[in-house]
Amino acid sequence: MVEYLSQQATPDSWGPARSKTVTWHDPLPTAMAGLTMSGLEYFAAMQDGKVPGPPIGALFGMEYESFAEGEVVFRCAPDDSAYNPIGVVHGGLVCTLLDSVCGCAVHTTLPAGVGYTSIELKVSYLRPVRTGDVLVAKGWVVKPGSRVSFAEGEVRNQDDKVVASASSSLLIIRP
User: Fold this and answer.
1) Which of 13, 110, 155, 165 is the one with CA 20 to 30 A from 123?
2) How many CB atoms lie within 10 A of CB 138?
3) H, E, C per residue of the chain
4) What is the pLDDT of residue 4?
5) In the chain, what is the greatest distance between 2 CA atoms, to the nearest angstrom?
6) Measured distance CA(30)–CA(54) in Å, rounded
7) Residues with pLDDT less than 70, the chain
8) What average pLDDT is seen over the chain?
9) 144 contact partners, CB below 8 Å, separation of at least 6
10) What per-residue confidence (pLDDT) applies to 3?
């Protein structure tokens, strides 16, 4: 059995232990329902509460702000559970946010029954992210394709400063 630091006695100087509860629905039925809808129909179904959002959104606190064909906008306000050892939000959260908006932008262009997956993601980090920052991530399709689509994204903070940007290649998966 592995004993994690959170299970051991900790010094008082560490402050009180914190916890976070994440709740989500089984993603498989939602994914299967999604195969019967175009990408735009799928996002509309999430917006209307007909299907739940993906578990990754609940884990990182991502919320859909808007979507249109070839473009999505998400919002995220990270808490300190995402901090890395140097006291800022881990770049992996920002990378996940960018991967999500790039992928979802492509998804909005796809017909029913067609999927996608990331095959390449290049992220440039420009500013640190801290608790209290409100991030707005926008993804857009640069070039749709029958085999590979290309998308870009950026994350801005509450001061409208770019925190990170990305370019992405996504494999189109046809039945």
Assistant:
1) 110
2) 19
3) CCCCHHHCCCCHHHCCCCCCCCCCCCHHHHHHHHCCCCHHHHHHHHHCCCCCCCHHHHHHCEEEEEEECCEEEEEECCCHHHECCCCCECHHHHHHHHHHHHHHHHHCCCCCCCEEEEEEEEEEECCCCCCCCCEEEEEEEEECCCCEEEEEEEEECCCCCEEEEEEEEEEEECC
4) 55
5) 58
6) 8
7) 1-8
8) 93
9) 70, 106, 109
10) 54
Tell me the residue length of the chain: 175
Q: Measure the CA–CA gap between 67 and 118, rounded to whole angstroms.
A: 19
Closest CA to 136 of 90, 100, 84, 88: 100
State the amino acid at position 91 in one-letter form.
G
Structure-block tokens of residue 163 = 């925190």
pTM over 0.90, yes/no = yes
Task: Scan for tokens 């989500």, then name that residue.
Answer: 24
**Contact between residue 69 and residue 107 where contact means Cβ atoms under 8 Å apart:** no
The label of the residue with tokens 């290049």 reads 122
